[in-house]
Amino acid sequence: MEVEGIAPGKDFVLYPGGGHAWDRAVHGTRHSPGIQPGDVRELLGRGIGVVVLGLGMQRRLHVAPTALELLREAGVRVHADETRAAVGIYPAVAAGPRPVGALFHSTC
Questions:
Q1: pLDDT mean values, one per 10 residues, the chain (108 residues)
Q2: Which domain of life is it from (predicted)?
Q3: Domains of the chain: which residue ranges?
Q4: What CATH fold (topology level) applies to the domain 11-105?
Q5: So what's the pLDDT on residue 104?
């Protein structure tokens, strides 16, 4: 994947004003149980109100229920979909009034 202002890579964390490569191993994220609370805490710390989750080209990356619960408790609106669809959703929600963050997994 290519994200403006960030070196090309496979997985990304995006937030208002920037982003970086997403090292899924930092919080033990694997396809199952999926995106972990630690993965979304960085985004919450950046004040997001909406998050877009790219679950891979074949939707193999899951989202741990504890991560979803953390987002819901914070009042964050969640969009989770196959990565190409999630990439399409991102600009639309980023144009809205709430700060947007994203986690994009580009493979499987």
A1: 89 96 94 96 97 97 98 98 97 96 94
A2: Bacteria
A3: 11-105
A4: Hypothetical Protein Mth938; Chain: A, (3.40.1230)
A5: 97
Contacts of 21 (CB under 8 A, 6+ apart): 6, 7, 9, 10, 11, 12, 13
Among candidate residues 30, 72, 31, the one with its CA nearest the CA of residue 51: 72
Angle at which helices 37-45 and 65-73 cross, to 10°:
20
For position 65, what pLDDT does the model report? 97
- The beta strand positions in the chain, using DSSP E, are 11-15, 18-21, 50-55, 77-81, 100-105
> Which residue carries 């070196």 as its tokens?
7
Contact 14, 102 (CB under 8 A): yes
Nearest one of 39, 77, 34, 89 to 59, comparing CA atoms: 34
pLDDT value of position 72: 97
Give residue 31's identity as a one-letter amino acid code: H
β-bridge pairing 100-105 and 11-15:
antiparallel
